[in-house]
Write a structure and sequence with these properties.
Layout (H helix, E strand, L loop, with lengths): L6 H7 L7 H8 L20 H9 L5 E6 L5 H15 L4 E5 L2 H18 L1 H4 L2 E5 L2 E4 L4 E6 L13 E5 L13 H7 L9 E6 L8 H5 L13 E8 L6 E3 L5 E2 L6 H7 L3 E3 L6 E2 L1 H9 L2 E4 L8 E6 L9 H12 L4 H12 L12 H5 L2 E2 L13 E8 L4 E8 L5 E9 L2 H10 L1 E3 L5 E10 L12 H12 L4 E7 L7 E8 L6 E12 H11 L8 E4 L3 E2 L2 E2 L5 H7 L2 E5 L5 E5 L5 H12 L8 H16 L19
Parallel strand pairs: 1-7, 1-14, 2-5, 2-6, 6-7, 8-14, 15-24, 16-20, 18-24, 20-21, 21-23
Antiparallel strand pairs: 3-4, 4-5, 8-9, 8-13, 10-11, 11-12, 16-17, 17-18, 19-20, 22-23, 25-26, 27-28
Helix pairs in contact: 2-4, 3-4, 9-11, 11-12, 16-18
């Protein structure tokens, strides 16, 4: 009998040579975007990628996970494996993305150009539509979003590729997206391959970090091996894993200067040789992947890919980011550094403020309602309740050091107006300071008649008496991209009456700001916040003056829930001074424009210019530091 095979059948049944994925990519793959756009895939640009790609292509390896920093080439490695699978592994495959918008952009900007530029894939390429790419050999690439369970329902795939899985958001009632994706490969359990790449987002509860987390017995949660890259020192020729402790700079501690002049070096842990960026690139080019605890014939392998391995990231850039993260109490800055540069989880500390710890933060020489000598601005937070207002006033100095100088309770909007616009606090050494910026929380429930809400009363008050000093705020229930951002409301919340011209309302990431406040209210804070000492009234010291303030400041704590996420838990009802403190610190945050840091810098420049005045008799200018005429 004579059988006649179609071209597609010949492609599927043809005998294929075993070619490492990296060699196949170097021969066929064309880079779709970035600085090397239009060029061939080069093994020397990111010398750590071939080890990841070839491991995925090895027989017996079922799953490869890559926990990597941004712009290290991890996504390019995934696309190389995907293109290799189209040519060398006929069968259904799926690409998962965080959302529909990302999936659309990736399809148009990367997949289509890459497939059309790669000769083996282009010869097989069929129609691209309806959330899938069809190939002439009968196989398909299914494009699926983590937001849409329907896109992956009733589909079995041989090869699965998941990009940035830590950005996947769970839809209520539809299970965990990553696990749902992995279920698609069950029918091909004898020959399926999975590649998961992602930057870690958050702490060890993220999916990519959890998979590589250590168990009590010494193994890993979801992989057999964890491999780290060992660079080879150009001096002593010995291998070592690059870590944060090796970054040094002997000339400066200023992050901007280090980054501008490229002053950072990496100190070899074995011989002490100081690597420049070029020496680092040479060391990485001669490096290798090594398992922490090798396993015979591993089937699931994880790779850790920090930014320090990439030639696109300078050592000075990493060290500058480290110094900036260490100089702040912002949990977001610290998380961005850990996740973005070292691809490590950032474990947010549980916060449980204690009364005695806060009382130890009192400044012995600071009295109530008197600003310290160093203070340059005052901010005020006002928490509105149904029948009254709670407020705190904080003084700020260079480096965002702050002091509580006043707090209390106000009866009505007239008192709020008097505090914000008419109150001036004396400053040690002479002079006075008025409140520079005040934030009023616009929540508070209904009023007695039930006709207006407290929020509508606040809106009306702000329309009449707000202006450049007093602003309305609203807390957000979910994390925000920035701690402070503004919106414009044009209708009353209950009556829906229009607000002519609108009202600017500032939206606050309350969870972030609370963590920032308690970070500053610690003994080792980089931006310390302190309280004023006890005061004397009618000849009698008030030993319990801070009692109510401390009680309300400790009304909440940050705890980890059963789902692994951090959330604030209310311990008792009254937390008004805590909310007012959060509002006052939001007023000084760098994301509120103009920021306090900008105002301080501008004032320093104006003061420096004012020091150089014309000499009356000559009309020249005098340098105040040398006394010479300029």
């Amino acid at each position: 009998m004579i059988f006649s095979f179609t071209p597609g059948e010949r492609h599927v049944f043809r005998r294929r040579p075993r070619i490492p994925v990296s060699r196949w990519a170097a021969a066929h793959l064309v880079i779709p975007d970035g600085p090397f756009r239009g060029g061939r895939f080069r093994l020397d640009v990111n010398p750590y990628l071939p080890g990841i790609m070839d491991t995925w292509g090895e027989p017996g390896v079922e799953e490869v996970l890559v926990r990597g920093a941004p712009q290290t080439g991890k996504t390019l490695a995934m696309y190389a494996c995907l293109s290799y699978a189209v040519d060398m592994r006929p069968g259904p495959r799926m690409l998962g993305m965080p959302d529909d918008e990302t999936l659309r952009k990736v399809t148009d900007a990367k997949l289509k150009p890459m497939f059309r530029a790669c000769r083996p894939v282009r010869e097989l390429l069929g129609k691209i539509s309806g959330g899938q790419v069809r190939f002439r050999d009968g196989s398909a690439l299914y494009l699926s979003s983590a937001q849409s369970p329907a896109q992956r329902a009733s589909i079995s795939v041989q090869d699965l590729f998941l990009d940035e899985e830590d950005l996947y958001r769970q839809v209520a009632g539809h299970g965990v997206p990553v696990l749902d994706f992995l279920e698609r490969t069950r029918s091909y359990s004898h020959k399926s391959k999975v590649l998961r790449v992602s930057k870690p987002v958050g702490d060890e509860g993220s999916s990519i970090c959890f998979a590589m987390a250590r168990r009590e017995d010494g193994g890993y949660e979801a992989v057999d091996e964890l491999r780290r890259f060992e660079a080879r020192c150009p001096s002593c020729m010995r291998f070592q894993v690059l870590n944060e402790s090796g970054l040094v700079c002997r000339e400066s501690k200023d992050p901007a200067e280090i980054e501008r002049k490229r002053l950072a070096r990496y100190k070899c842990a074995l011989c002490g040789y100081l690597w420049t960026d070029h020496a680092r690139d040479v060391a990485v080019s001669a490096g290798r992947w090594a398992a922490e605890e090798p396993v015979e014939r591993p089937r699931k392998i994880a790779f850790h890919l920090p930014a320090i391995l990439s030639r696109n990231v300078s050592l000075s850039q990493i060290l500058a980011a480290k110094l900036r993260a260490e100089a702040t109490d912002s949990p977001d800055m610290k998380q961005a550094y850990a996740n973005g540069y070292w691809a490590e989880p950032y474990l947010a500390a549980e916060i449980a403020p204690e009364k005695n710890a806060l009382l130890e933060l009192r400044e012995p020489d600071l009295k109530a309602r008197i600003a310290p000598r160093e203070a340059v601005a005052l901010t005020c937070g006002i928490d509105m309740q149904k029948r009254s207002f709670f407020f705190t006033v904080w003084a700020w100095a260079e480096g965002l050091r702050s002091w509580l100088i006043d707090y209390g309770r106000l009866r009505d909007f007239e008192d709020v107006l008097a505090l914000v616009h008419e109150t001036a606090y004396p400053r040690e050494g002479g002079g006075e300071l008025s409140i520079w910026r005040a934030a009023l929380d616009t929540g508070g429930g209904r009023t007695d008649p039930g006709l207006l809400t407290r929020t509508e009363e606040a809106y009306a008050f702000l329309r009449a008496s707000g202006g450049p000093r007093l602003f309305g705020t609203k807390g957000l229930s979910r994390p925000s991209q920035t701690p402070v951002r503004f919106t414009v409301v044009d209708k009353m919340p209950k009556s829906k009456r229009p607000i002519p011209g609108g009202l600017t309302l500032y939206l606050l990431d309350v969870s972030y700001l609370k963590a920032l406040v308690f970070g500053r209210l610690s003994q080792d804070a980089r931006q310390p916040a302190r309280l004023y000492e006890l005061t004397e009234r009618d000849g009698v010291w008030e030993p319990d003056e801070h009692e109510e303030f401390i009680r309300q400041m400790t009304a909440e704590r940050l705890v980890r829930g059963r789902d692994g996420k951090m959330r604030w838990e209310r311990l008792h009802k009254d937390n008004h001074y805590l909310d007012a403190t959060v509002l006052a610190h939001a007023c000084a945050d760098g994301s509120w424009s103009p920021s306090l840091q900008y105002v301080m810098r501008r004032d320093r420049e104006l003061e420096a210019r004012a020091r150089i005045r014309p000499r009356p008799e000559s009309g020249g200018r005098i340098n105040p530091y040398t006394g010479e005429e300029r």
